[in-house]
Amino acid sequence: MVFSRLGLIVFLLAIQVLLLFSIFQWFEEFLPHILGGTALFTAVMVLYLLNSHRLDPISKITWLIVIMLLPVFGALLFWYTQSDIGHRAVKTRLSQLTEQTKGIIPQSEQTADRLAQEAPGTAALARYIRRSGCYPVFERTAVTYFPIGEEKWYEMLRQLEQAEHFIFLEYFIVDEGLMWGKILEILARKAAEGVDVRVMYDGTCEFSTLPHDYPKRLKALGIKCKMFAPVTPLSLHTTIIVTIGKYWSLTATLLLMGA
User: Fold this and answer.
1) Is the sign of the CA dihedral 14, 16, 19, 23 positive or negative?
2) What contacts 222, CB < 8 A, 6 or more positions away?
3) Which of 33, 52, 88, 195 has the most other CB atoms within 10 Å of its CB?
4) Are 245 and 70 in contact (CB under 8 A)?
């Protein structure tokens, strides 16, 4: 854990805290000026939020509370969230992919009509889901309920053994042990037989259950693995912004506590 990505993040945060208190000691004589500037800055931000037409009332209240408690840091956080170019780019790309894939699997009108007659509420929910992507409703499907996980695991092992063309697995939590070990043994063997085996899991697993290079380990077994939402260290510019914001906020807080 010390040499993992989490250890690096903790180390960088520790350096940031030390730097924060060092800056506080260096500029101690300017505390009155900092307090006055913070108060003026807070007033300007409050007026800006109250007159902003980009935010709904609930968002305005939330940001007003954050900025009034942590003036500079709150303002920098507001700027960062509102100008998150990466998030907007991903959202735009997902919208494009949704439009491109909507017609790949068409919805059977007869199936949709029968569902509307049998369960109008469920049909309305199905129409709502279809508007966000390629998710049609099908007939003649079956669902098996497993009261305990062990029964589902045994059935899963049996069906994995029968796979001939592909195996796609997606889980939030994957942990090395008896259950995953048996599954991985079958996946590796099927991949060697030419079956297309793909695995996805949540990136937070690297905090405690899996090493960061686990996708590479599965790739060595012939398994295509993707870790979605991986844990990434804070970038340099974000760290600087957060450090400066915390310094100003902590300075005003300590001065008020001293008064």
Assistant:
1) negative
2) 188, 191, 192, 197
3) 195
4) yes
Name the phi and psi angles at 182, rounded to 5: -65, -40
Distance CA 140, CA 153 (A): 25
pLDDT digits (tens, 9 = 90+) for 106-121: 889 999 999 999 999 9
- Quote the pLDDT of residue 258: 43
Predicted confidence (pLDDT) at residue 194 exceeds the cutoff of 90: yes
Asked if 9 and 233 count as a contact pair (C-beta separation under 8 A), the reply is yes
pLDDT in tens, 66-100: 877 777 677 777 777 777 666 677 778 888 888 88
How far apart are alpha carbons 42 and 59 in whole angstroms?
17
- pTM over 0.90? The answer is no
Residue 243: strand pairing partners: none
